[in-house]
Amino acid sequence: MKALILVGGYGTRLRPLTLSVPKPLVEFCNKPILLHQVEALVKAGVNHVVLAVSYMSELLEREMRVQEQRVSGPLALARELLNVDNEPFFVLNSDVICDFPFKDLMQFHRNHGKEGTIVVTRVEEPSKYGVVVFEADSGRIHRFVEKPQVFVSNKINAGIYIFNPSMLSRIQLRPTSIEKEIFPVMAEEGHLYTMELQGFWMDIGQPKDFLTGMCMYLQSLRQHAPERLRTGPGFLGNVLVDPTAQIGENCTIGPNVTIGAGVVVEDGVRIKRCTVLKGARVRSHSWLESCIVGWSSSVGQWVRMENVTVLGEDVIVNDELYLNGANVLPHKSINDSVPEPRIIM
Amino acid sequence: MLKAVILIGGPQKGTRFRPLSFEVPKPLFPVAGVPMLQHHIETCAKVPNMKEILLIGFYQPNEELTRFMFNAQQEFKISIRYLQEYAALGTGGGIYHFRDQILSGNPAAFFILNADVCSAFPLTEMLSFQKEHGEPNSFVILGTTANRKQSMNYGCIVENEETNEVLHYVEKPSTFVSDIINCGIYLFNPDIFQHIGKVFQKNQQDMLLEEPTNGWHRAEAIRLEQDIFTALAGQRKLYVYKTLSFWSQIKSAGSAIYASRLYLTQYHTTHPERLASNKEGGPRISGNVYIHPTANIDPTAMLGPNVSIGTGVTIGAGVRVRESIILHGANLQDHCCVLNSIVGWDSTVGKWARVEGTPSDPNPNDPYTLFSDGKLTPSITILGCNVTIPSEVIILNSIVLPHKDLNRSFKNQIIL
């Protein structure tokens, strides 16, 4: 079986992290985002993953060592690659994180026998999204409504699909949005079904949602693989710590914290709702909430960082500073507090 | 023989010192670890021939003031008395009202010191200056130089550069007059009372001509600066001694931190024993720090520069304090960080909390000014007495009035 992951773009929404590393390789809960998806696909029996990439593709290819094939355009370009064995294939956006339901999706798709199935997830505020209106029993899609002002549905496209190869003939070799141009036609012809996702789902394409997604993922780990979470004195709630990280004395870590490989957290540090990426150092008595600390960055003593502060790679935050919602580009040394959210070039 | 008079004001004054002046008369607020007034008294007591120090103000006699005077008399072996005005009489009216007390024993000269200044108090230098310059019966104002913009917040003095005679005096002019400003420290002789007496007589005559008012205007309410110095300028009676040593007003609470820094620096020469040093088993000290011996400080804490720690203060593990005054009985819990702030008596700062202000240099005397949206301009942070800051919050550029239990972070606010 085959799968296509739509990596694409520059990942601008996840800057400053994506100035150093292509988005699919940014570690989400200590594992590259793409690997979360590939592992789930492999588990579902996929043996051939195609990445649709454009930006930093060499780096991506080297890192992933998946298949030799490289696709540099829209879905139509992958036609030859996906159409060889006449089997359904998966397609997914690289930004989404969830308990990937590939086996169930395949089963559901085969059962209804039509051309495509898209996974939907429930949201609280449907007016912010494009929603999917479908038949409750069968899952057959009636229509799509962009940002509905009147409630019609609370289910949105989760960015995870399965298609029969015949669907590919609908796409021409030009820039095409399958969501806007292809799906409505397929729905009209009765060829598009939905399966509702059970469990959590998040588009982690920007820092705020990256952290929210982390909280959801760690909670899911708590339910399915609690042994991977760190517990004991000084750890609160769901905390994921790489075995090579060092945590000092009298720290309180958690809830909802991910600490990457080789990270050093010195004594008396308080961290909650944060991701600390590989090789970073947090010096003693600092306090961090809702932050992403970039690779090999250093946070000084008695620093307070909060409100989705994101440090790019190799940023130095000097002692005793306060960063509120700072977005710091790579390789900067910060000498003054940032009391209100802003970008530090 | 000599005397010194310290003008300590009263409870209606010093509103800019709120919320700290709610708890203690402002002159007794600790600066660099000792009451503001003690710095005055120490230098007065060292002047040869100084026989008595009089405090004049309109505070009701109170326990703190009484205890302070008792202790100071013991320590400095000098007579200290408090003379209470029946109302706020102004800088000239107060001393005129108590002229018999000041002149008893026939002092040849006496100093007048405002309590709300911080200075090296070059009193003996003023005496020598009076002897060497000017007329034998001249009056001397201590002056210092300020920048053009700041000078207009003070009394401005134009001098004869050769004789140092005061040619012109104006209080807080609206345009630039001179960069020499009045430090609020004077050396007078008994003749001054003739000049104040003339103003008193004139005031009384003026009042007879006027309709009876609500009693606010009193013939006795006389301001040395506007009523006396302005008239004496150019009369070969008033001279200015310009000092290069440190000086600052202590009007707002924020300026207490600035004044503390100046006094702590001075301790290197005057009171090295008051400065903490890095010792085995003690906290890490950076720069000038005063720690009261009764304070209990974890060795992993880091203090300084410019920190004063009061009696019975408790400081936990991994606490950081810089540019701050911690008043008696306060409790700073583990890992908290206090920067550019005054932590009030018996207040508690929770674990990993951050209490931070913005230093108000270079003009520490600005009162808190509000933005149009009601937010404070960045100032130092002040926690009044018995305030509780919970763990992990930030209190930034805020003033917290006494006896508040906060439950979240605050920024740029006055919390009533």
Automatic annotation (TrEMBL), chain A:
Domain of life (superkingdom): Eukaryota
Q: Where is the Mannose-1-phosphate guanyltransferase C-terminal domain?
A: 236-344
Q: What are the recorded GO MF terms, alphabetically?
A: GTP binding; mannose-1-phosphate guanylyltransferase (GTP) activity
Xref: CDD domains = M1P_guanylylT_B_like_N
Task: Supply the name of the protein.
Answer: mannose-1-phosphate guanylyltransferase
Family per similarity comment: Belongs to the transferase hexapeptide repeat family.
Pfam families assigned: GMPPB_C, NTP_transferase
> Has UniProt tagged this entry with the keyword GTP-binding?
yes
Q: Which UniProt keywords apply?
A: GTP-binding, Nucleotide-binding, Nucleotidyltransferase, Transferase
Query: From what organism does this protein derive?
Result: Monopterus albus
Q: What EC number(s) does its UniProt record assign?
A: 2.7.7.13
UniProtKB/TrEMBL annotation, chain B:
Q: Does the keyword field hold Ribosomal protein?
A: no
Assigned keywords, A-Z? GTP-binding, Nucleotide-binding, Nucleotidyltransferase, Transferase
Coiled-coil region list: none
What positions does the domain Nucleotidyl transferase occupy? 3-204
Against PROSITE patterns, the record matches this protein to:
HEXAPEP_TRANSFERASES (PS00101)
Task: Note the SUPFAM superfamilies from the entry.
Answer: Nucleotide-diphospho-sugar transferases
Q: InterPro entries, from UniProt? A: GMPPB_C, Hexapep_transf_CS, Mannose-1P_guanyltransferase, NTP_transferase_dom, Nucleotide-diphossugar_trans
Q: In which pathway does it act?
A: Nucleotide-sugar biosynthesis; GDP-alpha-D-mannose biosynthesis; GDP-alpha-D-mannose from alpha-D-mannose 1-phosphate (GTP route): step 1/1
* One Pfam family matching this protein: NTP_transferase
Q: Which GO terms describe its molecular function?
A: GTP binding; nucleotidyltransferase activity
Q: For the Mannose-1-phosphate guanyltransferase C-terminal domain, which residue ranges apply?
A: 285-415
Q: Gene3D superfamilies under this entry?
A: Hexapeptide repeat proteins, Spore Coat Polysaccharide Biosynthesis Protein SpsA, Chain A
What the protein does comes down to: Regulatory subunit of the GMPPA-GMPPB mannose-1-phosphate guanylyltransferase complex; reduces the catalytic activity of GMPPB when part of the complex. Mediates allosteric feedback inhibition of GMPPB catalytic activity upon binding GDP-alpha-D-mannose. Together with GMPPB regulates GDP-alpha-D-mannose levels. One of two paralogs (gmppaa and gmppab) that may have redundant functions.
Q: Give the family per the record.
A: Belongs to the transferase hexapeptide repeat family.
User: What protein name applies here?
Assistant: Uncharacterized protein
